[in-house]
Amino acid sequence: PHPTTPIINYQLSTINYQLSTIMHPHIWYPYTQAKTASEPIEVKSAQGLWLELADGRKIADCISSWWVNLHGHAHPQIVEAIARQAAQLEQVIFAGFTHAPAQQLASQLVARLPENLTRVFYSDNGSTAVEVALKMAYQYWANRSTPRQRFMAFEGAYHGDTFGTMAVGARSLFSEVFQDLLFEVDFCPYPATWDGDLEAIDKEANCLEIIRQNLTSHPNCYAGIIIEPLVQGAGGMRMCSSEFLRQLRELATEFDTLLIFDEVMTGFGRTGADFACNRAQMQPDLICLSKGITGGFLPLAVTVATEDIYESFYSDDPTKTLYHGHSYTANPLGCAAALASLELLTQNQPAYTQMEFWHRQHLTELANKYPQLTKLRVMGTIAAIDINNQEQAGYLNNVGRKIGHHAIAHDVLLRPLGNVLYLMPPYCITEAELAWVYTQIDRVLDKVLDRP
Ligand SMILES: *Cc1c(COP(=O)(O)O)cnc(C)c1O
Predict the structure, then answer these.
(1) Are 244 and 110 in contact (CB under 8 A)?
(2) pLDDT digits (tens), the chain, 452 positions
(3) Atom of ligand 1 nearest to the CA of 128
(4) Are the CB atoms for 154 and 148 separated by under 8 Å?
(5) One of 31, 55, 202, 369 is an active-site residue; which one?
(6) Hey, which of 264, 270, 275, 422 would you mutate to test ligand 1's pocket, going by the most ligand atoms within 8 Å of its Cβ?
(7) Which is deepest, 85, 120, 334, 447, by most CB within 10 Å?
(8) Which atom of ligand 1 is nearest to the CA of 301?
(9) Is residue 248 a contact partner of residue 215, using CB atoms and an 8 Å limit?
């Protein structure tokens, strides 16, 4: 039997722990309601696309292990880079000290990013990369003696789980209980679009108009505008156009505010280009990167700023310093993994540029077969589609959970966001493997969805 025993009572599981393989008595799992969750699946090892489970089965990791893995699991070039670095320098304080992996990685990132982004600040997870960008933007104006208090963000946004990032994220199930502690943010609609969407242009014009109104009615008040460019991840793989981003850039420039790109998920090839800003052919003032940065091996993040922002902190006045840093800032192992991953990105560019075509072909076939599937959209390696059912759309829609369970039984790891079914495979997936994955999804949908 596949390991998806329904509803396990946490109290019971504690008592019976010795007797069976149920929820561990000493682990508090993330994003998991222990009382109603199925028992977690134990993974023994992984190779390329495949996770090997404790029971010996192999399942295809079609979500790149929460969007972090790029080149497949256990890629030997990254394994080797980490091992080599660990034997030489595993970790050292990064204030007052530096090391070659951090220096090389900063240079290589800057070489790949739009040319205005020149200063790399290291941290160790996506939420922190965004938190740092918000602090940089806020202090930028303070340092220039023109303080600004407000941020603009987008409906449906997800920027992380810390307080600052929850504040600029959509007020949702995730942040509801902390609402009173979050600073005020002005939210604008995100012009989510999909294949064959006839209203895309109107939606974009409407969003841009609302942004313009905000900027006009609060002149010199906005420290910055933060957006997940091209794809909103956790909010349901909602996609917007490059043209919208270019117009947003124009507005930010016209009204002299900072544009922050949260590319924690979209970075490093996910959208079919190195970065979403490259695909959209425009330049943000700050960019946040994490998730795929180490190829999915180690936690690492960067916030990259323009020279103009950096210069506002460059001063004899100690109050103008960016007083931020973490114990594992610029960890040498993470940097070494990131350097190896960048090399693989260069070597294997077709792997992430051609997937868009494969996705669209297969997803279109599914959409034609199941009338419940709507809003087909693909951006590079990310493919998504909504499932219409009787329940309310959103994270709590049960169809996602059902699909996830059935998918495991069909040897495929999927983790739909409520009623949004999406794929985000590692770049090592072959055309034949992807075709097989879609066949399995077809079988799953056949079980889960009612056929007319
Ligand atoms: C995952 C994610 C984050 C948060 O990153 P963590 O490493 O989980 O803290 C921030 N922004 C976006 C767009 C993300 O997808």
Answers:
(1) no
(2) 333 333 333 333 333 333 344 678 999 999 999 998 889 999 999 999 999 999 999 999 999 999 999 999 999 999 999 999 999 999 999 999 999 999 999 999 999 999 999 999 999 999 999 999 999 999 999 999 999 999 999 999 999 999 999 999 999 988 999 999 999 999 999 999 999 999 999 999 999 999 999 999 999 999 999 999 999 999 999 999 999 999 999 999 999 999 999 999 999 999 999 999 999 999 999 999 999 999 999 999 999 999 999 999 999 999 999 999 999 999 999 999 999 999 999 999 888 999 999 999 999 999 999 999 999 999 999 999 999 998 888 888 899 999 999 999 999 999 999 999 999 999 999 999 999 999 999 999 999 998 66
(3) 9
(4) no
(5) 31
(6) 264
(7) 334
(8) 7
(9) no
Over the range 219-235, which residues count as b (16 or more CB within 10 Å of their CB) and which as e? eebbbbbbbbbbbbbbb
Kindly report the length of the chain.
452
Nearest in space to 194 (alpha carbons), one of 419, 369, 383: 383
The sheet carrying 373-379 orders its strands as: 373-379, 382-387, 420-423
User: Is the distance from CB of 192 to CB of 237 less than 8 angstroms?
Assistant: no
Tokens 């561990």 belong to residue: 24
- Token look-up 């604008």 returns 188
